[in-house]
Structure formats: structure tokens, C-alpha cells
Amino acid sequence: MQLRRNQALESFHEFLKQENEVGNITRQEAVSMVPPLFLNVQPDHHILDMCAAPGSKTFQLLEMIHQSTKPGVLPTAMVVANDVDVQRCNLLIHQTKRMCTANLIVTNHEAQNFPGCSLAKFCPEACAESKLQRLEFDRILCDVPCSGDGTARKAPDMWRTWNIGMGNGLHRLQVEIAMRGIGLLKVGGRMVYSTCSMNPVENEAVVGEILRRCGDSVELLDVSNELPELIRRPGLRTWKVRDRASWLGSHNDVLHYRKNAILPSMFPSGKGTTDSCTVGGSVEVNINAVDADMNESGDMVEGKEETKIATSDSNNGDNANTEEIKQDESESVKVSRGSDEKTDSASIVTEHSNLPLHRCMRIIPHDQNSGAFFIAVLQKLSPLNESLVVEVMKGERSTSKDKALKCSNGQGSDTVPAEEISVQQPGVDDTHVLVEQQNRDMDTEISKDKSSEEAKVVAGEAQNDQATRRDKRKTQNQGRWRGVDPVIFFKDEATIRSIVSFYGIKDSFALEGHLVTRNPDTNHVKRIYYVSKSVKEVLDLNLKVGERLKITSLGLKIFERQSSKEGSPCTFRLSSEGLPLLLPYITKQILYASAIDFQHLLQYRIIKFPDFVDAKFGEQASALLQGCCVVILREGHEDLESIGMDPSAIAVVCWKGKTNLCVMVTPMDGRELLERISFRFGLKIPKVDDGKPDLKSDDGSDEQPDGGAETVDPDCVPESKASEDMDISDVKDTE
């Protein structure tokens, strides 16, 4: 039942939407919350969410690292949330913005090509002076794209577009993403691989391929003793593969012309046939993703095409591309099917995996009235075996060099010419296993909206410019990624000193080195963001290796430029997002309001000093310096000095003008706070016109602020109407 379609629950639905929007609750399916729980996140962990959008699991991870911290204290942990789609990244940013955290970085990369940042490779001279040598993660959530058949209960409409070939087409990409995650994982770290599908080709087959590739370096953990009340079933060790209305028990059953689409790794044993186009039973992966640190993106265009092949394979199946079906059908007439022509599932001999796939978890909908989910917990025991990596590289290079020729001749040899393996180096480490291309400008240069012809032109230009990019890094102010603002450390000491002096920020709150902006022109900075120590170290590393991370969002907005006609000692006001973090360290520009005055301020948005119920409060407000200030609800607190350290304290950012005080929060946040304090203290919320304070000014004119809009003192003029915190409209005098 959908709440929005039930009139009796309409008000409840609106309540849920409002609470979700302001960040008090997050709506998420219960089974979707399970994978992060198996990560066993600790307060000092660096965490990567490889396919993060829309952001519910990322929000859950952020809550985990913040739950044990005190107000005003940031955890040492950090979360990097990545997604390949720019629009989904925007949704991810919107979702996580409600968390108000300085420990988050949002990136926009293909998960299978997530960049490796290693000083030893890209900036050896900076190794001695940098604390963070290489970007690795203690925990990785690998919730990969899948066919989604496990969501059929909540989204029955999916059957209109679902087909059996979707899982087969996504298998290759899922293996690439998972292997890239293993490469980024620290030794001793834990990675959770999950899907909302029940197809073993997307689940156990992927886990089995990871274990075969990594050998003894990776272990599939038995977590049956964790979350004991969760009803789960063991993973499968035998299964069949469905392709074109036929059941296949092993790769030997695959028709010759389908062996490039139905890979050996899809089957329990992972073994291929002599005429297979794959090598050693391994999935054909993007060559450039194997070792981008060793190859300076010389094959970037080919790598992009491999990625497109991986995703386009998801269209294979009963409703595959018409031309491809016709071509396959015409070829099938020429191929002797023999024993391959098996359609009866019961008569097919299936393979049995000797890997411990029973340690995987299958959450079945009817076991506990939930959606379906597959979860596997992997732990990295040692650096990945160099010989295995080289063998995979050899096979993939020989396969991709002339795939069509080998398939037509039935060759399965993995012999590679000497020049093809000349890139082997004795010091292959984890970052050299499955690393993305050296230059990922293609992420933004080739958008999905461009035609294939335009993409080829851009790709050609990018490929021709590789040598220049390798030898000469762009400076910080220029920024590397087209269409993405660079991350600049804010170092204007005069501005920082004025902020510290105006708000009386304690020395214990470190500002130096933690303030960043996205505007290269430091003289026209509008927003300043605060980043935690862990995020700062990653930013330093990213700058030293040539800005390999494409960062779309990071940190917590803490200050925002605000100009005033009458002038203010400080040109930057506090941000509502950053107030909870900064509140315990502010000693100036603070007011403590009673519940009734706090309620009036939220309800009417702007109040003249004489109109406050508490006359003393009005006098204190008028005595403040003109500019931004903080109003704290004092009810329920005996010691006013310790209110800022109380996590339950309620405070809002306001603007103190010559004659009045104006609240600077969004209307939605204002309504939520108003309802909260009214419920807590039993106050009635009158309509805007009922009991409204007299706002008549001394000169005989009446100020009529709009109770539903953001307003500010008439002498306070915002620098930009595009402020994210508020939409300010001037209060005009009417005669």
C-alpha cells in the first residue's frame, strides 16, 4: 500500500516527507540496511561506498562513524561516496547534506575504474613529507548495479522491463567493480559485496571469480554468528545459467557463437573450453583497469569502449537487440548444435563449486517479510599475488588484441608477444591490480548525451593529448576536471582572523588547513567549507598526485558571505549546516531566548527588539554587534555556559540589524523547529495573524514581513540570491 494514495494516511505521509527532508529520519527499506551492518565499522576507519547513489546506505555509514562522538568533536573516520552518474551524484549530495558532516567526500567515477592515488607512483619526491602515502580503505561497500529482481515485491512494475539476460550482461561489470574494490582494500580490511538480485550469475558466480583471481589473498568470511536474529540462507554451490531460452550446466554447453557473451566465470567451476574467447576462465575486464598506474592511459579510448560493452551486455536475453538476435539466429543455422541443444533443465548435468560459497547469505522475501538481498563478506589477508595479476594481464591483453580473429579460429592460447608484456614490473602492489586509467577526463568529456560520433572525436583529442598531461600537471587553481569546480584550501588569514574575532571562536577549534572553497578567485569566495582531518589528508594526497579524484562535493558548509549596507565587522555569516559543529566553540554573538520568544522568532521570521516578550532579551539583542548571531533556546538548561555541548540544544542562525532580529533558516526547517518546541513545552502554534507582535517602527511606518518567506533586516543585502540556506527578500516600509 502506498501512503500517498491513502487519504486517511495523507497527513502521516506529509509528516514523513518533512522529517526526511530536514534530516530527522531517513526512509529506507529494512533489508537494504543489512549490508553496511556486516562491515563492522570502527570510529577510525576509512570507508568507500563504490556505488553510493541514492545515498541511503552512505547516510547509514555516516551515522555509524558519528554515533560515538560528542558535540563539536569530529570522528577520525571518513566516508568516500562514489557514483558514476552525475545526476545521481546530485541526489546523493542532497541525501547526505542532511547529515551535516565534515567527514564525507563525494566523487564521480566509474566504480570499476576508481582512481588509485599513490605518492610512490605519481609523486615520489613528496613521500617523505606526507603522512598519507596511498589511498586505501579499511571498509568497502560494494553494492553493485544489478538486475533488481529482488525488489519485485515493492516494485512489481519492474517485470515490464526485466529479462533473464540482464544478469548475464551485468556479470562482467560486477566482477570488475568487485575486483577494483579488492585492489583498494587494506590488508586486514573487509569488503561487503551485495546485490538486490537472486540470480546466482550476479551473486555466487561473481564471488567465486573473485576468490579464484585473488587466491589465498582474500577469504570469504563466515559471518553466521553476526546478527543472529537475521534469517538468512546459505549461498548456492551449484546452479545453471539461462541463455536464449536454454539452460546451460557448464561452459561446454554454450553455443560457439555465444561464448563471448556467456563467460566461464558465470558457472560454478569457472572453467572455460578450449574454443572460449576468454583466458583461464577469467572474465574479460577492461585492460586499462588492470594497471593504470603502470600504463599512462595510452589505451583510454579502448578502455571506454570495453566499459560500454560491459554495460550493453545487460540487454542480452529474450528482448535483446533485434539486429543481434537476427545475426545470431542466422549463425545458429550454420553451427552444429549437437549436445548443446539442451532445453530440459532436469536433463542437464550441472557443475559443483569447490569454493566455500555457502558462507554467502541469501535473504529471501518470504522468510521475514522483506525484500530479497544477496550479501558476501570478504576479507583481504595479504597483498594480491603478483604472479596471478601478471597472468590475468597477459590473458586479457592477448584476448583483447585480436578477439574476433581468435574466436573465428577457435584459439584459446594465452601466449603473449614479448612487447605486450613489457610493462611488467617487479614491484606490483595492490594499487597496480585493477586501477583506473591514468587520466579520467573522459568521465566528463564524454557524456551520455553525446552521440557516438561526438564521443569518438573527443576521445581522439584526449588520447592525442596524453603525453602532455603526463609530463605537466595542471595547477590547483586551474582544476583538472571539466565542469567541476576545483577544491581550493582557503588561506586568507585576514578573513579567518576577522571570523575568529567576531564570533569569539576558541583556539581549540582548528580552522587552519581545514577550510576549503570551490572558487579559484579567493577575493570572491561565497562559501567556505570545513573538512575533517581525515578528509584534509586525502585532499593533500589528491593534490600531490595530480587531482586524480573528481570531487563533486565535500565537507560541511560552515561560513557564507553576507554583505550589509550599514557594514558589519565580519563579511561571513554562520551556516545553519555548520552551526551544530561550531556552536560549542563560539563565545560571542550569542543570545539565550525563552520558549515563547523563540517560538515567535520562528513563526514571524523577523521581530523588532521592543516586541519581544522578554524585554531583557530585546535589550541584549540590540546590544550585539550588527551582523550574524546565534539564538539558543534556554528552556530546560540551568547552566547556560554548557548549552553548546548539549546535543539536544536547539539553536538558530539569525541576523541582527539596526532595529530588529531576523531568523535565517529555511521555511521547512523553521516549521520543524517550531513544531518540536511547541510539542516539548506545550505551546500553542497560532496562525500568523493571531497574536502577531506589533511591528510598527518609530517613524510611523509598518514593516510587513512575509511569515512564510525568508526575510532579513532591510539594511542587510545578501551578496547572492542563490544562497543555499535561505531566500532573502527585503523588508520594505509602506507608508
> How far apart lie the N and C ends?
55 Å
Q: Write down the overall mean pLDDT.
A: 75
Please identify the oligomeric state.
single chain
What's the number of extended β-strand segments? Answer: 28
- The CATH topology label of the domain at 28-271 and 355-391 is Rossmann fold
* CATH homologous superfamily title of the domain at 28-271 and 355-391: Vaccinia Virus protein VP39
Structural class: alpha+beta
* Number of DSSP helical runs: 22
- Major sheet details: 10 strands, mixed
Shape verdict: elongated
Low-pLDDT regions: 275-343, 393-478, 688-735
Radius of gyration: 30 Å
CATH architecture of the domain at 28-271 and 355-391: 3-Layer(aba) Sandwich
- Helix proportion range: 25-40%
Q: Which strand-content bin applies to the residues?
A: 15-25%
What is the CATH top level name of the domain at 28-271 and 355-391? Answer: Alpha Beta
GO biological process, one term: tRNA methylation
GO molecular function: tRNA (cytidine-5-)-methyltransferase activity; tRNA binding
Subcellular location: Nucleus
Family: Belongs to the class I-like SAM-binding methyltransferase superfamily. RsmB/NOP family.
